[in-house]
Amino acid sequence: MFQVLKTEGRARRGEFSCTHGGVVQTPVFMNVGTQAAIKGGVSADDLREVGCQIELSNTYHLHLRPGDQIVRKLGGLHKFMRWDGPILTDSGGFQVFSLASLRKIKEEGVYFASHIDGHKIFMGPEESMRIQSNLGSDIAMAFDECVENPATYEYARASCERTLRWLERCKVEHDRLNTLPDTVNPNQMLFGINQGATFADLRAWHMQQIARIDCDGFAIGGLAVGEPAEVMYEMIDVVEPFMPKEKPRYLMGVGTPSNIIEAVSRGVDFFDCVMPSRNGRHGKLFTWEGTVNIMNEKYQADERPISEHCSCPVCCRYSRAYLRHLFKADEVLALRLAVLHNLYFYNELMACIRKALDEGNFAAFRAQYSGQLEKRV
């Protein structure tokens, strides 16, 4: 399933295989299509064009709309959205954090009030596994609690213990579902999630505990939720020694291009973040020179592409002036073009990281770009 081809320091160059889409080259950025679509009018065909290897969708949102039973009836998420590559589904655990005012956590699971119409929803480990089995994703994430930042030590410890018990329940139910004769994807994998807020001892203890459970990969969750970047890096440093070396490592919800480079240097293989699409929809564009705010007046008559060092479909055809005009005129095309560019950049960033690792030049790549990509053009 996963093979580390070579290393440079703690950075890993690998390959990952699953039922759909052949071999994924890692480190990899997963493009976020929360509701089976990338916000900004981007289709599955567009994802192929911009170099996407893995698409990510959300269990909670698809459970509400259109309903996981509907998706199952239509042949699973791959057929539903016409994407033939790998798909990872988040468990709904992040909504335990993001919908704090609409939920109540119990040992059996979480009681939600739907953010759409207020109707009552219950989701526990078994329900999350059944929903993800209905969706037929290649990777199912364990149901966990992502705690708020800052959290008290006592609450974070209790949450870690509960998330461990939930993972054990997820594993049992996931294994059962994969044996059913009518399951959508009997080869679906399960990734466990490390929690512990920003407490180093909890992070280390929790990782040691979940590593004893036979998951197909492990994620670091509950970071990039407001803590400084240096604290996030410290938590990765604490957790990484206890993560099984033969299995993929996933840093959830991260992040900026610099965050990704720094996390790769600390041994992370998988990433996802809404940043390229969300920032794109607000006119913030990523380039090798730094970030561009296309709304700035200085681009009003600028005939250059977003970046002269980019080969994306947008930079090959359109000017900064045109894209700025589309945003100012509230044209939907502005969102689509900006998101396409940003997704292309993120996927190209990962390809360049992999090339640097292949050639033994990652340290030099990190030194050149980790700071530069944070700058504003």
Automatic annotation (TrEMBL):
Q: Does the keyword tRNA processing apply?
A: yes
* Binding of substrate, residues: D90, S91, G92, G93, F94, D144, Q195, G222
Positions of region (RNA binding): 253-259
Residue ranges of every copy of the tRNA-guanine(15) transglycosylase-like domain listed in the record:
10-372
Reactions catalysed, semicolon-separated, are: 7-aminomethyl-7-carbaguanine + guanosine(34) in tRNA = 7-aminomethyl-7-carbaguanosine(34) in tRNA + guanine
**What does the note under cofactor report?**
Binds 1 zinc ion per subunit.
Which Pfam families does its entry note? TGT (PF01702)
Needs which cofactor? Zn(2+)
Q: Which residues form the signal peptide?
A: none
- A GO BP term, please? tRNA queuosine(34) biosynthetic process
| Pathway this chain belongs to | tRNA modification; tRNA-queuosine biosynthesis
Q: What class of enzyme is it?
A: transferase
GO CC terms, sorted: cytosol
E.C. no: 2.4.2.29
Which sites bind Zn(2+)?
C310, C312, C315, H341
Q: Which residues form the active site?
A: D90 (proton acceptor), D272 (nucleophile)
Q: What does the UniProt keyword field contain?
A: Glycosyltransferase, Metal-binding, Plasmid, Queuosine biosynthesis, Transferase, tRNA processing, Zinc
Q: Which GO terms describe its molecular function?
A: metal ion binding; tRNA-guanosine(34) queuine transglycosylase activity
NCBIfam families from the xrefs?
A: Q_tRNA_tgt (TIGR00430), tgt_general (TIGR00449)
- Which family does the record assign? Belongs to the queuine tRNA-ribosyltransferase family.
Q: How does this polypeptide assemble, per the annotation?
A: Homodimer. Within each dimer, one monomer is responsible for RNA recognition and catalysis, while the other monomer binds to the replacement base PreQ1.
Summary of the function given for this chain in its UniProt record: Catalyzes the base-exchange of a guanine (G) residue with the queuine precursor 7-aminomethyl-7-deazaguanine (PreQ1) at position 34 (anticodon wobble position) in tRNAs with GU(N) anticodons (tRNA-Asp, -Asn, -His and -Tyr). Catalysis occurs through a double-displacement mechanism. The nucleophile active site attacks the C1' of nucleotide 34 to detach the guanine base from the RNA, forming a covalent enzyme-RNA intermediate. The proton acceptor active site deprotonates the incoming PreQ1, allowing a nucleophilic attack on the C1' of the ribose to form the product.
Name listed for the protein in its UniProt record: Queuine tRNA-ribosyltransferase
Organism whose genome encodes this protein: Pusillibacter faecalis
